From TrEMBL:
Keyword terms: Signal
Endpoints of the signal sequence: 1-29
Protein name: Peptidase inhibitor family I36
Organism (species): Nonomuraea fuscirosea
Length: 193
């Protein structure tokens, strides 16, 4: 999923409290997001590329059974014709107590290499899982990348996962108290439903 939100970041500094903007449909019972994370990629013979990333977990549905992990990125960097990356793949996981329940990969290599007007767009990679188990759900992920012409092969940028969604005293899922909690009240569409 790609959302245009305008340029929201500057090289080296993240000026927003949260990268995630209002997703498309459906009310969330609970959600939690990591603090924004950022990385500047030094590219041989080309302008550097800055990437901001955020991990969020959402629950919704009857008994909060639908779990959605979302990795969102945006980027900034001057466009120069030619290949920037040999690989730029996002991986997002739905986890419960550090056990992986669902995993999805999104290949954004051609987006970062070929589309000069995509700067400032928000890209989302989503993984879905249905479970009646409550508590301990998080989103986690990483970006696997290979910088063109650096001669070093693949790198892995392990992202900090979201805070956990926990069980409230009444038995419902709720947010773990944290300053990192998202105020998002809607969920992205589940293409599998």
């Amino acid at each position: 999923m790609v959302r245009t939100i305008g340029r929201v970041a500057a090289i080296g500094t993240l000026f927003i409290a949260s990268l995630t903007v209002t997703p498309t449909t459906g009310a969330w019972a609970a959600s939690a997001c990591s603090s924004p994370q950022e990385k500047t990629f030094s590219l041989p013979g080309k302008p550097d590329v800055w990437v901001g990333a955020e991990m969020c977990i959402y629950t919704r549905g009857s008994g909060n059974n639908q779990k959605t992990a979302m990795l969102s990125i945006n980027w900034s960097g001057s466009f120069l014709a030619g290949k920037r990356f040999d690989k730029f793949v996002a991986e997002v996981r739905v986890e419960r107590n550090d056990t992986v329940y669902a995993n999805e990969q999104c290949n954004w290599t051609s987006d970062l290499n070929n589309i000069s007007d995509s700067e400032g767009q928000m890209w989302d990679c989503l993984a879905y899982y249905s479970s009646s188990l409550n508590g301990g759900w998080t989103a986690d992920g990483r970006i696997i990348y290979n910088i063109n012409n650096d001669g070093k092969g693949d790198y892995v940028w392990n992202l900090t996962g979201s805070p956990r969604v926990a069980i409230a005293p009444d038995g419902t899922e709720t947010l773990v108290p944290s300053t990192e909690v998202s105020s998002i009240e809607e969920a992205p569409d589940d293409p599998t439903s």
